[in-house]
Amino acid sequence: MIKTPYFTNSPEVHGHRGCRGLLPENTLPAFLHALELGVDTLELDVVISADEQVVVSHEPWLSAALCLDADGRPIEPTRERAFNLFQLPYDYIRRCDCGMQQQLRFPEQQQVPAYKPLLLEVLRAVEKRTQELDRAPVHYSIEVKSSAREDTVFHPAPSRFVELILGEVHAAGVVARTAFISFDKRALQAARQQAPELPLGLLVEDAEPFHQHLQELGFIPALYGPEFPLVDAKLMAEVRAHDMRIVPWTVNEVADMRRLLALGVDGITTDYPDRLLNFLQRL
């Protein structure tokens, strides 16, 4: 059987949280619109609810800047972590609107009623819409949102966390087009043990040397995902020497896109996939 490669074109367009600059992040409207724009990969974050549902969300709590509570009331910023998704059943989470608050950081973002969907719901909706559009299948880059200090507080231990996500990916039938990414090296180690065929990506946002990150991880991942200001010719050479691909995040200005493409990155993660797609078309 021939497996679909994780990456198909270069440079790839990765829609960050769908298309956060255009529609509410990590919501069905954002993912479906990014798909319609023509992204190669949908980047999304997952957390776990009290009833062990895999929920698409960046924070493991209801962000006061994004969401209302289940009764439609604003959430006090100082209390948002009390709305711990790991301690809330999905039935409650589902009733919270996370799409109607204006985002000053993203003035182009359209406010629409939206909720935090389940991962399986997103995968199935995207696959269905892909067929309707008669376009090439999209890839998925799923970020495991975990850290050692938050184990058993905001999420399960890495092995259980990864197990739950893998179950949904298998249920949707998209394993061959899915990668797991994380800042948490423990999560990637757990994923490698449970699904050695899965492409894995290490996310980086600090100035720790490249070789030290790999030494701590203990293996060579398929993908290196640095915060975009960290990318220079030296880092590119180090990544290429290990036969890895590099997809920096989160790149929203055309000038930065131009610089990174000139360096030869394999893809770009952006809140504005429309900007990147338009730039690539002009090229």
Automatic annotation (TrEMBL):
Query: Which PANTHER family does UniProt cross-reference here?
Result: GLYCEROPHOSPHODIESTER PHOSPHODIESTERASE, GLYCEROPHOSPHORYL DIESTER PHOSPHODIESTERASE
Q: Which GO terms describe its molecular function?
A: phosphoric diester hydrolase activity
Q: What is this protein called?
A: Glycerophosphodiester phosphodiesterase
One Pfam family linked to the record: GDPD
Using the record's annotation, list all stretches that form the GP-PDE domain.
11-280
Q: Name one GO biological process term.
A: lipid metabolic process
